[in-house]
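User: Here's a chain of 276 residues. Predict its fold as tokens.
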Amino acid sequence: MNFRPVAVLDSGIGGLPYLSWLQENLPLESLVYVADNANFPYGEKSPEAVRSFVVELGRALVARYQPKLLLVACNTASVLALDALRTALELPVVGVVPAVKTAASLGSGTLAVLATPRTVENDYWENLVGQFAPERRVKAYAAPELVTLVEKGSSQADREAKLAAWSRRFKADGVDVVVLGCTHYLHLAKDLARHLGPEVSLVDSRDGVGRQVGRVLEERGLFATTRRDPDRFLFTVRTQEDAAVRDRLELRYRAWAREFGLEYMGPWVLSEDVRP
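Assistant: Prediction complete.
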């Protein structure tokens, strides 16, 4: 049964860079990526709501694809729902965390944790700071508009204006290390780095999380010895979704699936599988 897929779940396209790491480093593993468009954005919803729909979607994902491991490639869902998922599902679940430990060894100025409102409000990241960067000045910043910018798209002018504004804010606060505490921000990393300049380091958790997936698969004897299925992409929708809206979603998600070498599986209507 080692040919069963590794499932990757995010509120949208944020987790695709994590999937890309798995494709490159665990090439025999088949992957199923779910963009939970129906519940986007996670970072602006209540903790109770996030736990509820993430657990229900996790159960539906297990029933549909029988994955051998679930990677929750979303910081908000990992902070708020990881324990609930591990209780509800009979398979290993790996989450993502802000890469504070890695960032602590870089720079000497302010260490910025850029995240969603729910991640910033949770004390999880502060516990990481207390453990790995107790002597550093650390400040958390909530940037939900950057999540929407990545997921929904924007004009180049709007994108540049928002990143320039964040660059000015970081420089004014003496920031020399930025932890990308939301997976969506990885899609902006190159442009943000251009605005910030070489004196500011950007840090994410792809390598650490990917290695943890590999360790769990190895420890449990779950490594694939041959590839059976292609890597697949699907996104969730509600039954009441307007046809024109769904068409636009399909156009956008097809393009993302193609960019990451995924077989496009189309929309997953949640009312048929998941009761929110």
